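Batch manifest, entry 17 of 40.
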Amino acid sequence: MAKNFIIRPRYFIPSIALFFGYIAFQIEDSVKISGWLLMLFFLSLALVFQKADKLKGFSFPLIIFAAVSLTMYYPQHFVSFNGFKLSKLIIPLLQIIMFGMGSELSMNELATVFKMPKKILVGVICHYTVMPLIGFLLVSVFSFPPEIAAGVILVGCCPSGLASNVMSYLARANLALSIAVTTVSTLLAPLFTPLLMRILAGKLIKVSFWALAWDTTQVVIFPILAGLLFHFLVRGKLKWLDKIMPMISMIGIALIIMVITASGRDALLKVGALLMLAVLIHNMLGYTLGYWFSRLLGFEEKDCRTISLEVGMQNSGLASGLALGLGGIGTVGLASAIFGPLMNISGSSLATWWHGRIPKGEIDPEKPI
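Output type: structure tokens
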């Protein structure tokens, strides 16, 4: 069982060896080998973390870091293949991910929208006000080039990320509320994402409301509707497909980040550290303000945790796809490529911390009554 697995120091020996090997070849300027060693270092850590119940939430971000490491060292392999531009795969991959989201929904989950309208409304309003405005303020402070600044705002204008549902479960939060806020914010994305981008980023890049709304509808609404249809007609009959859909989504997100990183490698090397700092502040302020706004409204602890995660965790994959439509996959898309991995690490850390702190009035399911 994963929860009984104890990580011992010896399990990290391969990771330590790979890391020092990477340092050695990096000093020797042997790029052909050092990139592979860095990638294997992250993968080895991911394998160790996957065995431990409290750490396995960090496995996926580590896999993403492995993929990004490979991309940063060998970007030429992830821009095109035999003359085919790999950026053309981003939209189909996003549609598959959204289809997976739709296939996981049921009537019971959709009915929660009508059971807690006030909490859902607060979650959605916080999401579409806090994150876009923080993004706008950050780019004003950091003075990024226009297209990169627009990318930061774009991440803030996108709906909740699917990972927030997993993190809410791990954080002992209100999972039903999390699913409802994610669903509603996602369905509202074709309206609010282009509207907010037009208002906040219209002076940075050219933003066509209708074009962006149509792109969002193609990536979000149609695949989710197809997923819902799949859920009611087929789900349960093809168990092998039900099992592999989450894995397909994870692979899809990794591939999207790799393609964006490869396209914007040069720009990322110039503003990488500052952009990473801005993205981290964006993410952390989302958690903090989402939580305390909920506390001020008198919500229960588990609901405050839920809204905190829903506000702070964005659908960075959707931002990547929309960046392609805005004509700046290697610039507008950079913020989303960084936001995704950082969001998963911060979300996993926050959820793990909350997991050990039982909300007031609830019984710890891991302890006998």
